[in-house]
Amino acid sequence: MKVKIQPVIKIDGHWVKIFYEDNLSDYHGKYGQSRFAECEIAIDRSISDSCKMQTIIHELLHFIDNTYNNYRLEEAETDALATGIHTLLVDMGVEFDWSDIK
Hints:
- The chain is of the alpha/beta class.
- The chain has three helices and six strands, in the order βββαββααβ.
- The longest helix has 20 residues, at about 50-70.
């Protein structure tokens, strides 16, 4: 089942823009980056769709953690949760459609 990733997602009343940023991993050593003040999530365009899927889950968890959990999750905990959710979704046959992301 394909799930379309929207270019803007609402999290607790905040509209979060999702977009590609070239060479993010080259410059920052990351596949994605959450920017809370700007309400943005940048995803490295060059990574595989599977990596994009896990990365967007990871970055959305940062926003959820920041909004609902006072940003208490450590990076390793966020990684673990993102990996678990990604594995669960893939095992359920879910794929993300990135066609609306620019």
